[in-house]
């Protein structure tokens, strides 16, 4: 499958790297290719240029080119900027495509822990679906840290739960197949895109568990 991951942060790189390893033709989209290639990350981690050198199968493209390439598009951009980023990709490049949304609408403007930019009776997944009505939005993976997204065996012997929300059943089935390729076995379809309110509003608890355990390497499992 041709996959376009929009976003060059840790999530975008992690998902794109794994998709390429799995044999999918994969590109990453960014607002300004040359600016991103010359960016030096403040935290001392590998730069995007270093990462691309280590992942030669992945190409870095501008947003419309990436969107045009992908049969499946992943939104791995900052939640506060996702609508703007996807507008840069272009509605015409998202029409009819499965749009996997892994972003969280976190507001860091008042420090840590962040609050939610949208909640209760709306969510980012719904905002994206409303803004791009011809895209087939599937919200998933936003409840786990990047490394666990593509390697669920890192926590709970691989037996933890990942969620799906979206209005389009075939799109959710396609995404469930990709999740299974990543190693997910417990995939819980919550229902339509409004159910993404639940997984986005889990973030305040996720952040407190992070604080209590001092590590993002965890997940939850639904039992009953
Ligand atoms: N970190 C995790 O483990 C984790 C886990 C679950 C969900 N998420 C969610 O996944 C998304 C990506 O997270 P991340 O940690 O990889 O990186 P991030 O810092 O939240 O997002 C970085 C990406 O957002 C894009 N972006 C576009 N407009 C922006 C703007 N005005 N300001 C800042 N960034 C902008 C950047 O694009 P350019 O390439 O053009 O600079 C960059 O690719 C977020 O929504 C996050 O909440 C993260």
Provide keyphrases for this structure:
alpha/beta; 38% helix; 10 strands; binds NADP nicotinamide-adenine-dinucleotide phosphate
Please count the helical segments. Answer: 11
Unreliable residue runs: none
Number of strands: 10
Strand content: 15-25%
What sequence of helices (H) and strands (E) makes up the elements? EHEHHEHEHHEEEHEHEHEHH
Distance linking N and C termini:
35 Å
Helix content: 25-40%
Radius of gyration: 16 Å
Bound molecules: NADP nicotinamide-adenine-dinucleotide phosphate
Structural class: alpha/beta
What number is the mean pLDDT? 97
Tell me about the biggest sheet? 8 strands, mixed
Strand order of the largest sheet: 3-2-1-4-5-8-9-10
Q: In one word, what is the shape?
A: globular
Describe the structure.
This protein has 224 residues and is of the alpha/beta class. The chain is 38% helix and 20% strand. The chain has 11 helices and 10 strands. Strands 3-2-1-4-5-8-9-10 form an 8-stranded mixed β-sheet, sandwiched between helices. Strands 6-7 form a two-stranded antiparallel ribbon. Strand 9, helix 9 and strand 10 form a beta-alpha-beta unit. Helix 4 packs across helix 5. The relative contact order is 0.13.
């Amino acid at each position: 499958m041709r996959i376009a991951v929009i976003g060059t942060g840790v999530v975008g790189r992690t998902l794109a790297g794994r998709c390429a390893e799995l044999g999918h033709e994969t590109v990453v989209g960014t607002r300004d290719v040359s600016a991103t290639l010359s960016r030096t990350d403040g935290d001392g981690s590998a730069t995007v240029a270093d990462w691309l050198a280590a992942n030669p199968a992945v190409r870095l493209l501008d947003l419309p080119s990436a969107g045009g390439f992908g049969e499946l598009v992943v939104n791995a951009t900052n939640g506060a900027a996702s609508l703007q980023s996807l507008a840069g990709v272009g509605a015409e490049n998202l029409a009819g495509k499965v749009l996997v949304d892994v972003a969280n609408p976190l507001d860091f403007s008042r420090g840590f822990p962040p609050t939610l930019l949208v909640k209760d009776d709306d969510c980012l997944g719904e905002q994206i679906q409303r803004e791009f009505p011809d895209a087939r939005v599937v919200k998933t993976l936003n409840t786990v840290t990047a490394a666990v997204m593509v390697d669920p065996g890192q926590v709970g012997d691989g037996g933890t739960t990942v969620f799906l929300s979206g209005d389009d059943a075939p799109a959710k089935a396609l995404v469930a197949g990709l999740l299974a390729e990543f190693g997910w076995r417990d995939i819980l379809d919550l229902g339509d895109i409004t159910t993404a309110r639940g997984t986005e509003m889990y973030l305040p608890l996720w952040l407190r568990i992070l604080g209590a355990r001092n590590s993002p390497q965890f997940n939850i499992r639904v039992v009953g």
